[in-house]
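Bit of a strange request maybe. I'm writing a small parser for structure token strings and I need a real example to test against, not something I typed by hand. Could someone generate the tokens for this chain?
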Amino acid sequence: MIYIENLHHDPHYNLAFEEYVLKNIDAGEEILLLWQNEPSVIIGNFQNTLEEINSDFIERNGINVVRRITGGGAVYHDFGNLNYSLIVPNAGTEIDFKTFTQPLVSALEKMGVKTEQTGRNDITIMERKFSGNAQYLWKNRLLHHGTILFDSKLEDVQSALKVKPGKFESKSTKSVRSRVTNLLPHFPSPITIEEFKSQLLENMGDYNGLRTMELSPEQLDAVNELADGKYRQWDWNYGSSPSCNVIKSNFFSCGFIEFRMEVENGLIRHMKVYGDFFSRKGIEEFTERFQNVRYDKEMIHRTLQSMELGDYFGAITAEEILDTIY
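Reply from user aminoacidic:
Good idea to test on real output. This should exercise your parser:
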């Protein structure tokens, strides 16, 4: 087994690093990565980003939102979470989680922490989840990666992924929220996350030998290019979302208004407005202005500010509508 160290905390870079190693480093044996992200929500490849995040909490706390190449549900990362990636050559085509979660389960058992794989892709302790795992097959190589909740802010995990029910309708893959726990309270004695990382490396290395490798400056440049060209792009993180219907409503001084939007690839394709308000102009003029506008706070606000809203709704501000629509 080869270990490649990556000490960056930018999720855009880290996901690019992982993909680059998967697709470009043919070591002929398993590769292990251990990495941490600053506060981030990592979206599954087949999910609708808008349906998985609490946008208000995300914006208020400056949390990154990045899509990964593997399927599964959305997860929250912070500095109390450690991520691991196994890149396996000559892998079969069947999805097999237990084989690749076993090194982690065995390593933790050596540290005095008894865990088990449950369900399809979770690792639990005392029936609470601390690790979710996902896989991606590229040519004959398998990427298996997972989270390890060591000492994360569990209240932020819940807040960042708490979406108001009934606001989105789509056929995208929805996250299943599980009861979660941190690993730290279950260790026989106190341990820091750096000590945990070192012991994990040592024990997983025992599982299948371990030697280290570094990427060249040219390879690291390629990682940065991938991060810039893909993982930092709105089109990847939001625009790749499956189609959905967004339904938002509120009571204003002018009356009740409901906004129904059909969002495809992150763009508002159609909008309908219903309610008991009075309008001096045809409401179709208002809805047409949103056609092909990004379902993005800044772009929606800009579109609202470009119109005389009083012509459509009477006494109402762009900020009031924005707070409802987004």
